[in-house]
Amino acid sequence: MLMEVQKVRFLTLTSWTLPPIVETVTVPEARDADLRWGRNTRVKGACWPYKMGKQAGWTIRSPLDLHIEPVRELQVQAAEAELEELGQQHGIQFWVRRGSTYIGVAPDGWFRFHQARVAGQWRNLLIPNGECTFEWALGWGLELPEDHVALFQPIEGQDAFVVHPGLLPAERLATFTESGLGLAIAFEPRRAHTIKRGDPLAKLFVFHKSALALEAEVVERGETTHATLAGV
Length: 232
Fold this sequence. Notes:
The chain is α+β, with helices and mostly antiparallel strands and 232 residues long.
């Protein structure tokens, strides 16, 4: 009996978004056949665990050209009327309220520049979220089979920014879709850099939530060997 194939659905909520894609790893064609010793034939793509790992899940891409800068931040719990004075003291002009805390961020021009229209209103795509990170809305929603979770992970070799890990169960995803701006990743700029539309940002993996209940058992090799010998 054939089992029904379960699907992950990416919902394009905006005209400007780029849904995630499956990455393909290929081995470059060898061009050193006439060289005597220096032949680079052992590349990462030729190693099947690396290739399988890279092609697992989906690659999240930047939906826009974005110049990023590292920021400094001030978190305060104060009256709104006090923010102007605090901002003058610390050279901060932009504040956002997250829960009971006001977060002041500088410089602020680079991330405030990026807005999108949702239901007739302009909305910020990047919102400060503490510890110099941002929630970056990507313009697409996600639907998973029941009892599955979405895991967001950083990509290798990226030093200009980092996307911090995140885990979302299927039942929490509808909130992002209803917002109109889609899923948001936890994004932290590390140095000045220009991200181009289509550049990879992070990886997305989907798995059954039962995997979260797996327990680990450490078996000491010496003890296992001793127990086996004792039973002989």
